[in-house]
Write a structure and sequence with these properties.
This protein is an alpha/beta fold. It has one domain: Response regulator (Rossmann fold), CATH 3.40.50. It is built from five helices and five strands; from the N terminus they run E-H-E-H-E-H-E-H-E-H. It has a five-stranded parallel beta sheet with strand order 2-1-3-4-5, sandwiched between helices. The longest helix is centred in the N-terminal third of the chain and has 13 residues, at 13-25. Bound molecules: magnesium ion.
Amino acid sequence: MENITVLIVDDSSVMRKIVERSLRQAGLEIGRVLEASNGLEALAVLNQQKVNLVLCDINMPAMDGLEFVKQLPSVENAKGVPVVMITTEGSESHVVQALSAGARGYIRKPFTADQVKEHILPVLAGNL
Ligand SMILES: [Mg+2]
């Protein structure tokens, strides 16, 4: 697998860094890492750049992760790009909605690098 471009969407810059570090610690072939702090920013990034994977928080201001997943098909550039949600305890109903709106999976906080790898490898391989 060649180096992939990942978009990390979270309203916490600290969490974005933790997610990035976990991806690198997991030994995934990560090339560029792009960041957005809410769904609106993420849609704007996807309009401009080719991305291979989106990791997306659920609770965010301006546009939350659920609305982002619903809006994603309207971005021509982002057709077929897998989205994996990053969730917290208590957001089960949102996870279910995100999955039915097209998200490929979810990772629960707090997570280890191994868990990140376990969830993301099959998604990148097109198996989820
Ligand atoms: Mg958040």
